[in-house]
Amino acid sequence: MEPAGPEPSLYTVKALLILDSLGQRLLAKYYDGTFPTAKEQAAFERSIFSKTHRAGGEIACLEGLTVVYRSSVDLFFYVVGGCQENELMLSAVLACLLDALSHLLRKEVEKRWLLDNMEGTFLVVDEIVDRGVILESDPQQVIQRLSLRAPEPAAYGFVLFDYLTGSSERRDRGDAGGRE
After folding, report:
1. Which residues have a Cβ under 8 Å from the Cβ of 74 and sit 6 or more positions away?
2. pLDDT over 70 percentage in the chain
3. How far apart are CA 102 and CA 122, in angstroms?
4. What sign does the CA torsion over 113, 125, 137, 154 have?
5. CA 152-30-150 angle, 5° bins
6. What angle separates helix 118-128 from helix 139-149, to the nearest 10 degrees?
7. Burial of residue 28, with CB atoms counted within 10 A of its CB: 0-12 exposed, 13-18 middle, 19 or more buried
8. Which of 19, 45, 116, 173 has an alpha carbon 20 to 30 Å from 52's alpha carbon atom?
9. Quick one: CA dihedral 20, 25, 31, 35, positive or negative?
10. Concatenated DSSP letters for 78-134?
11. How far is CA 81 from CA 56, 110, 125, 167, in A?
12. What local confidence, expressed as pLDDT, does residue 110 receive?
């Protein structure tokens, strides 16, 4: 008996892209040889952007590939899979990416903040997808892994607040004033 379709594979994601409002690449990770050269990748990115930047949908079939996409302020996020891939799995990857980035940036995901935190963006992408295999689709797990890997520096807000309000000087004077 002959199989009905291709063998199931863990290699689900062919590419993950973040483009700006002009269709320029901010981040692109290609996980297989579908687009082997930079020229072919750029042409694919122009094609995908021109067909989706005004569309209201979230899923498209372009050039024999399944593409799920979403926009956020001035960015476009794309997860690309094969034509037989499950759109719900690709959508889960996209939702995880957006949720983890919005938590990482602590605000709406927009180009300025994304560029300022590009190293964190690459870490988020690498925690979600590795060589085309979906590792995680829960944004809380991604955030937890990143926080274990790179602890945040100590908050200096209290020192600045004390300085601005002069409370540290009052404490010093209060201690000295009680002894005089």
Report:
1. 20, 21, 110, 111
2. 77
3. 14
4. negative
5. 10
6. 120
7. middle
8. 116
9. positive
10. EEEEETTS-HHHHHHHHHHHHHHHHHHHTS---HHHHHHTHHHHHHHHHHHEETTEE
11. 20, 25, 15, 57
12. 82
**CB neighbours of 134 closer than 8 A, spacing ≥ 6?**
10, 12, 13, 89, 92, 93, 128
What is the pTM (predicted TM-score) of this model?
0.76
Burial letters 96-113, b for 16+ CB under 10 A, else e: bbbbbbebbbeeebebeb
Write the single-letter amino acid at 26.
L
The two three-digit tokens of residue 81, written as one number: 């899979």
Residue type, 144: Q
User: What is the per-residue pLDDT across 16-64, written as a single tens digit (0 to 9) for each?
Assistant: 999 999 999 999 999 998 899 999 999 999 999 998 888 777 888 888 8
**Pairing mode, strands 129-130 and 75-82:** unpaired
The full length of the chain comes to 180
